[in-house]
Amino acid sequence: VHLDHVKEIRRATATTVNDVLMAAVSGTLTRYLREHSDDTTDEVFWMIPVSVKPLDIDLPTELGNHFALVALRMPLGIDDVRTRLGEIHERMERIKNSDEALLTFSIQRGGSAAPAPVATALTNALSDIAVGVLTNVPGPAHPMTFAGAVVDGVLGWAPCTGNQAMTVCIFSYNGRVAVGFGTD
Fold it and tell me: d(Cα 48, Cα 72) in Å, to the nearest integer?
């Protein structure tokens, strides 16, 4: 998908690029479920990584993970695209305006310092409430090279843990958006 097309939709609907792409995933999952005789599932629960550091700060000399997983109840079964996009936008705004990211980051930090059985139990408790991880990563806006060859495209995969059955990674690179689905 061309990123410019996604940005046009974003501008026309006063939403975000992320909202537009999440609404596309919602529509895709709805169609898939219906094709497999499930027209009753009305939402799916995702864990979404969000940064807990501002994007405009300089990178530290020692890199590390500074993100939290927040919960998104993605609506399914909404056929009208504008309505679906509006619902996604509303739910994402709720997440952005809450302290959920800082709370889950604190839990993650505490769990990482706990003994291994406690850390494992905590990780599983948090991860098992979601179908999987859904992430949207903005990549390089211009072509990159690898071993002297221009990279045509990039397809990302979000990590899964515990009993999660699906992963979705939305990745933009060089003006295009790719979506990687992983399932068990």
Answer: 7
Among 92, 77, 82, residue whose Cα is nearest residue 22: 92
**Distance in angstroms (rounded) separating the CA atoms of residues 8 and 3:** 9
**Residue among 89, 85, 71 nearest 27 (CA):** 85
The phi-psi region of residue 77 (left if phi > 0; otherwise alpha if psi is between -120 and 50; otherwise beta) is left
Summarize the confidence of residues 66-92 as an average pLDDT.
Answer: 92
β 176-183/149-150 pair status: unpaired
> For the chain, what is the mean pLDDT?
87
**In this predicted structure, which of 5-9, 19-23, 123-127 has the lowest mean pLDDT?**
123-127
Q: How does residue 66 score in pLDDT terms, banded at 50, 70 and 90?
A: low
- Cα–Cα distance, 73 to 43 (Å, whole number): 6
pLDDT in tens, 144-172: 999 999 999 888 888 777 788 889 999 99
Element (DSSP H or E) covering residue 88: helix 81-96
The residues, any chain, with a CB within 8 Å of residue 56's CB and separated by 6 or more, are: none
Instruction: Give dist(CA 129, CA 108) in Å, integer.
Output: 15
Alpha-carbon distance of 173 to 176, in angstroms, equals 5
